[in-house]
Amino acid sequence: NRVFCNQGQNILGESYVVEAINLYDSWGLPTDPIQVVGNKIQGGGPSGSSGGILLGDGGGAHQVARDNIIVDPGQQGIGVAGGDNMSVLNNQIFARQQYFTNVGIYVWNQSSAPCTNVTVSGNSVNWTNSTGAKNPNWNAGNCGTVNGWSTNTWAAAIDASIINNPIAACSQ
Predict the structure, then answer these.
(1) Nearest Cα to 39, choosing from 69, 10, 17?
(2) Whole-angstrom Cα distance, residue 148 to residue 107?
(3) pTM, full prediction
(4) Which pLDDT value is given to residue 113?
(5) How far, in Å, are 20, 77, 140, 163 from residue 46 at the CA level?
(6) Phi, psi for 149 (deg, rounded to 5)
(7) What is the pLDDT of residue 13?
(8) Torsion over CA of 124, 54, 42 and 7, rounded to 10 degrees?
(9) 143: number of CA atoms within 13 Å, CB side?
């Protein structure tokens, strides 16, 4: 399965979006993971549980979010809410302070299913939460060691203009 090179925009006040892309209880294969690649997501909220991309919601396995551009998506940019073999790779995530913003990338097992083998690597994040504090990441610690955590740029010099950046995977 692929969610590849889409563009989505939510206009605040015109809808009550939760996640733009949610892979609820979805299972890829080790040799063929579910891939969310090259998407541009802009706008979100005002739901306190809204966001750009959510992997592992309710469990699942072998899911990848790679090379996405996310701007002001709501409460979170990309979340890993559980599952096995989840990867968040080379995404660009920005959010300005809004009354519902919380965290850029999080890893937090929110289901009874195991959460293991998570990789979060090569991402660029500039996230401001609802109080005005920088809050690019949060790891609840209940998914084991998160591979690649130190390879991310948590204070990236990016802003909302990244939505206009081309995505190499989509220009082919």
Answers:
(1) 69
(2) 13
(3) 0.97
(4) 87
(5) 13, 14, 24, 20
(6) -50, -40
(7) 83
(8) 100
(9) 29
C-alpha to C-alpha distance for 59 and 160, rounded to whole angstroms: 31
Give backbone dihedrals phi and psi of 145, rounded to 5 degrees, phi first: -65, 130
pLDDT, tens digit (0-9, with 9 covering 90-100), for 31-70: 999 999 999 999 998 888 889 999 999 999 999 999 999 9
Contact partners, residue 161, CB within 8 Å, separation at least 6: none
Which tokens in the block code for residue 169?
């995977």
Task: Identify the burial level of 166 via C-beta atoms within 10 angstroms of its C-beta, where 0-12 means exposed, 13-18 middle and 19 or more buried.
Answer: exposed
115-164 pLDDT per residue, tens: 999 999 999 999 999 999 999 999 999 999 999 999 999 999 999 999 99
Cα–Cα distance, 86 to 84 (Å, whole number): 6
Look at the block and give the residue holding tokens 């551009």. Answer: 69
Give residue-wise pLDDT tens across range 11-37. 988 887 889 999 999 999 999 999 999
Joined together, the tokens standing for residue 139 give 């790891």
- Smallest CA-to-CA distance from 6 within 34, 44, 36 is with 36
Q: Which residues lie closer than 8 Å to 107 by C-beta, 6 or more apart?
A: 79, 80, 115, 118, 120, 138, 139, 140, 143, 146
Task: Name the amino acid, one letter, at 12.
Answer: L
User: Length of the chain, please?
Assistant: 172
